[in-house]
TrEMBL record:
It holds the Pfam family SpoU_methylase. One of its GO terms (molecular function) is RNA methyltransferase activity. The keyword Hydrolase does not apply. InterPro entries: Alpha/beta_knot_MTases, Ribosomal_eL30-like_sf, rRNA_Methyltransferase, SpoU_MeTrfase, tRNA_m1G_MTases_N. It comes from Klenkia soli. This is tRNA G18 (Ribose-2'-O)-methylase SpoU.
Amino acid sequence: MPELITDPRDPRVADFHDLHAGDRRPGTARGTGPVVVEGVTAVERLLTTGLALRAVYGVAGRLAALDLPAGVPAYEADKWVVSETIGFRLTRGVLASAERPAQPELADVLAGSRRIAVLEGLNDHENIGSIGRSAVALGIDALLLDPTCADPYYRRSVRVSMGHLLTLPVRVLTDWPGDLERVRAAGFTTVALTPGAEVDLSSLDPAEHPRTALLLGAEGPGLSAGAMAAVDVRARIPMRSGVDSLGVAAAAAVAFAQLR
C-alpha cells in the first residue's frame, strides 16, 4: 500500500520537490540527478526499461492504475499536496523517479544501429522529446547529441516523448564534430538536413544507403560549418514556395519516415 504524504516538503518525496518548468530542477547540475516521469502511460513505459525506480508519487486513482513491482517506494497524497510538492498543477496525477540510463559506448551504438539521428545545438527540451518519440515510432535506432544539446532525460523531454526516450540508446558525442568521422567509418551515410541544399531528400533511396545518420541542427542557426563539412550529403525537404523550412521536430519526423 502507498504511504500517505500530508507535508509537501516530506523528505520521502524529495525527488519531486520544486520541479519548476526551468531548464533543470533546482540544485542539480545539467545532466545529473534522477529521471522524473509524468503520467500513467509514461510511468508504465518506464517500468519496461529496467531502470532502477527510486519512488512513485501521486493521487490514489492514478497510483491504483499502475502495476508496480514489489519493493518500489510508493507515496500517495491529494492533488493539492502533490501540486505544492512539485511547484505546479499536475494534471497527469502521478510521477515516478528513476536512476539515469548509463550512456552506451559509441562503438556499441554504431554496431547495433542502421539509422541514427544526430542532433546539434538543440537546446529546447520539448523538441528533443518530440524527436525522440518520432525516432522510436519511425525506425531510428539511436540518438547522438553534440555537447550543447539540452538534457534528453530532463522531465520535459521525457514527458513530451511519452517516455519513449527512455527506450532509445542516447549518446553525447564529446568530440564534436570529430566523432562524425567515427560514424562515417562505421559505414553510415551522413546526411545533413538543411533548407539550402540542392539534393531532394526523397531522392535518397534507403535501399542504396542501408546505414544512414541524419544530422539536424537548431531552428535558426541550423548546423554548424564544422558539421556541414563532415557529411556526405546535404539534403532538403521539398515544400511549397514561400515556406523555407519546418520546425526541427516536424522536419525530423518527415525525414525519419522518408529514410525508413
